[in-house]
Task: inverse folding
């Protein structure tokens, strides 16, 4: 099942400039592994070495944060869409 | 011009969007404000409008900001419907310079434009824009051009 994935600006260097790509998988972890096959280097920008989501990265399934679902094990159905969202933060000190 | 508008030398912005950023920075003082720059990279990097975001870091709002990912998601979707994109973000530094701090660099993302507004005693402001390309590169200043 092909799922549409929204790619944010900082990762588009790895997707040849595409802001939306498609990947196959039954859950989000599988989608990330499939993305890595098509776009080598993408997985390490999304996941830590232990496979968990990096703290600078959020993933939304449709309009919900996957941390409030089953994280990378969240199952997918047809027409679902994923969005990779970078954490935006900072401060004066 | 580099990849995807990276390596951009100037950030074009309308006078009204520029003024809205300064107004937000003064309104939020002594706290940090933050917002999202929406626009196009078709002909240079051009900010079409700005979105006032909520600073969700309530505990340290005087020297930190966080934009809720949900707000990012909503504005990204709105931008896409208009064939626009999120170009970057703005935030203020109350009583601190308009330069990126180590915290800004730690949380910074390559390819985005980061406008920083210094607000001195709630009134005087100065504004600069910064960006970096590679994950380990330092921030470099980008000229702001009011169009």
Result:
């Amino acid at each position: 099942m092909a799922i549409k994935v929204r790619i944010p600006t900082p990762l588009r260097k790895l997707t040849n400039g595409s802001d939306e790509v498609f990947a196959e998988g039954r859950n989000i972890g599988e989608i990330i592994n499939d993305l890595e096959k098509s776009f080598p280097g993408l997985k390490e920008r999304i996941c830590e070495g232990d496979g968990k989501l990096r703290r600078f990265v959020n993933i939304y399934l449709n309009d919900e944060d996957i941390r409030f679902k089953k994280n990378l094990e969240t199952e997918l159905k047809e027409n679902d869409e994923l969005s990779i969202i970078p954490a935006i933060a900072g401060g004066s000190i | 011009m580099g990849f995807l508008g990276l390596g951009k030398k100037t950030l074009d912005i309308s006078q009204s969007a520029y003024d809205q950023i300064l107004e937000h920075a003064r309104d939020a003082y002594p706290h940090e404000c933050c917002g999202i720059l929406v626009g196009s990279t078709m002909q240079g990097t051009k900010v079409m409008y700005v979105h006032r975001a909520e600073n969700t870091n309530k505990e340290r709002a005087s020297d930190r900001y966080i934009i809720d990912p949900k707000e990012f998601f909503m504005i990204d979707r709105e931008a896409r419907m208009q064939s626009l994109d999120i170009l970057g973000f703005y935030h203020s530094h109350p009583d601190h310079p308009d330069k990126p701090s180590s915290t800004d660099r730690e949380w910074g993302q390559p390819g985005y434009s980061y406008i920083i507004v210094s607000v001195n005693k709630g009134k005087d402001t100065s504004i600069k824009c910064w960006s970096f390309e590679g994950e380990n590169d330092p921030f470099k200043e980008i000229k702001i051009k009011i169009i």
Summary: Chain A touches chain B at residues 6, 8-10, 12-13, 17, 19, 56, 58, 60, 63, 65, 83, 85-93 (CB under 8 Å). The mean pLDDT of chain A is 96.
